[in-house]
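Technical annex B. To support the medicinal chemistry partners, we prepared a structural model of the target in complex with flavin-adenine dinucleotide, based solely on the information shown next.
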Amino acid sequence: MPAAKLVTDPAAVQEVHLETDILIIGAGNAGCFAAIEAKRVNPDLKVTLMEKAHIDRSGCLAAGMDAINTYIKKGYTKEDLVRWSRAQVGGGPLREDLTLSMAGYLNQCIEEWEEWGLPIKKDENGEYKARGKWDIAIHGADMKVILAEKVREYGCEVLNRIVATNYLVDNGRAIGALGFGVRDGKLYVIKAGATIIATGGAGGLYKPYTNDGNDAHHQIWYCPFNVGTGYAMGIRAGAEMTTFEMRWCATRTKDYNGPIDTISVGYKAAMINAKGERILQERYAHLGGDAAPRYIRANAPMEEWLTGRGPCYVDTTHMTAEEIKDLKTDYLNERPSFVLFLASRAQDISKEPIEIYGSDPYIVGGHTASGYWIDNDRATTLPGLFACGDVAGGVPNKFVGGCAAEGLISGRAAARYVAGLADRGMIDREQVEAEKRRVFAPAVRLAAEGDGVRPREMEERLQRLMDEYAGGVHQFYRTNRERLEYALKHIKTMREQVKYLVAQDLHELMEAHEVIDRLDVAEVLLHHLMAREETRWPAWQTRADHPERDDERFNCFINSRRNPQTGAIEILTRPYEPVVEEK
Amino acid sequence: MPPRVNVDKCDGCRGENEALCEAVCPGDLMTVNEETGKAYCRSARDCWDCMCCTRVCPQGAIETRIPYQLGYYPAKLVPFAGTDKVTWTAVDINGKVERFTFRTRNK
Ligand SMILES: Cc1cc2nc3c(=O)[nH]c(=O)nc-3n(C[C@H](O)[C@H](O)[C@H](O)COP(=O)(O)OP(=O)(O)OC[C@H]3O[C@@H](n4cnc5c(N)ncnc54)[C@H](O)[C@@H]3O)c2cc1C
Ligand code: SF4
Ligand code: SF4
């Protein structure tokens, strides 16, 4: 289908007006579960999914998965999961209430996925095959296709290739969303009773170290097409956000950026340094050794590099031929090109260990606790708006199962919310006109001036700024007040430069909005990093000027809200309220 | 150098509403050249190497390559998809071949 021409006069942009009961933005893992559950609560509801890509292969699950990291096995309880999750974030803060409610639906979602067609590996007793304490092994190459089929079967409306750009807001309430068709070039105005945001986390805020020349810019771990638009839409509408300073940085296979847990946990391959020393066991025994919290495991190999004991590896040289075949099969289910990567280095991992390195930092609420501040219904602070999955905050270590469970909870809550609605609000015509001008501005600029800033140039400027001043991988994740102030000053200039962005076609128009959204997320992230004057999670958050942890001041959530009138970002704190007792 | 389209094999998915590689790419990178009727990747730099396009192509016309900046020539990884199974063939830079077959959905 040839893409439509990008219109250069906003007055000529065609509008598509739609009405629905529940609008779900982002038809990924969480969004699909939200849609299915809303239909189950009330089959008469009209449920619409607005997806930037194509529901069959979008977001984190596009290439597939080889494991589900959160499933409650026999002998474990929801409370155990909370305790483990708390330990993974060094004792908190985390929203234990939300973690508990999520834990209640993990197994249901996964077992249903299996019924719908997802192959889950079994052990000799017929139980799901365990990989770690909470992980189970799957053949998930086509899990997204299977989920998409179910969404259609439940009678949900799917709008592919529509990029959401902002919420429709009436008197401080979300009543749907606006977006544009990246194939048809039309402006979509979708009015809804309830709106669920499920656009995933944010990749591409920081410069990846694989970024050489032209070809390896997106050789990153997180889905590079999830750019944080959901966060940015909330920030612009004045929703409260939490814990952006808890960035997800992880040890990944070097140069390829493939998941490492598959190898280290699944095949018991220990991390070693250049001298062959088992890093975690030898240097971090007091923090749990091989079972140390995730941020320690992210920081440890980088610390080795920094002190001159790199490169670092996961030691696969003990693995049998059969195990190697299994490991490669796992990768073919999740990031198939890893097998190509090994082949392109002719690497026999039974003789040569796999090199590891830190990733660029991501904001991803399915792993750390960054995202919308929500209540137990997954309602945000913006009435009418619910959030689930990587875009929702407070609950670290959700992963596939937890994002699905949160989708289910938000779908159910949204259906209830719609049933109780007295009125559905009014579309503000001026907002629609203003958004149309904002969205198509890069096309207008190119037509009128013939010159300006390409989205790619601005993206690379942002990524370099964040990397060097806000604790990217090239700086071994370290930052300080002065660097953050520098970054904030330049972000401000870049935000003023948005008016110079140009786009020559609809794909580039999407890229222009991706960089605008990343700027908004990065600015909030900088404020969060500035506010936490301590080092709580080395690597995830390292303040070189405040190297110690300060429980007295900071055992709490750092939250923020951008004032929609003035644009000022206000920082506030919320108490950490543990609900599960230590054993 | 991510997806490379073999123009002799690609038929532009004639008969489909939209070319399959174009429909599935999560980054909106695959597209069909209107003049030649053949698919291409509009921005190799932005490719995630997820191989969704390579797997979906009914003609086997797409080959994913690891960017040369990261891996050497001429390794290959070729999928052959059935309804509930897939077989992958990997060939390393010295010509060593490995094959993997596994389920992709329950019957
Ligand atoms: C490579 C990789 C490996 C992983 N491995 C594992 C694992 O082994 N086990 C595990 O449990 N977890 C794993 N995870 C984590 C897990 O996959 C995610 O946390 C979870 O699937 C996220 O679900 P989500 O619905 O929030 O996001 P996604 O599934 O990414 O969905 C977000 C959706 O929003 C769409 N979207 C984005 N912006 C817009 C917009 N502006 N308008 C409309 N739509 C938009 C996207 O296209 C996408 O479809 C992995 C993640 C990655 C990236
Ligand atoms: S899916 Fe294959 S045959 Fe179809 S357009 Fe793409 S490359 Fe060509
Ligand atoms: S490998 Fe993935 S990201 Fe790259 S062009 Fe193909 S479908 Fe798109």
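Notes passed to the chemistry partners:
Chain A has a mean pLDDT of 97.
Chain A touches chain B through 54 residues (CB under 8 Å).
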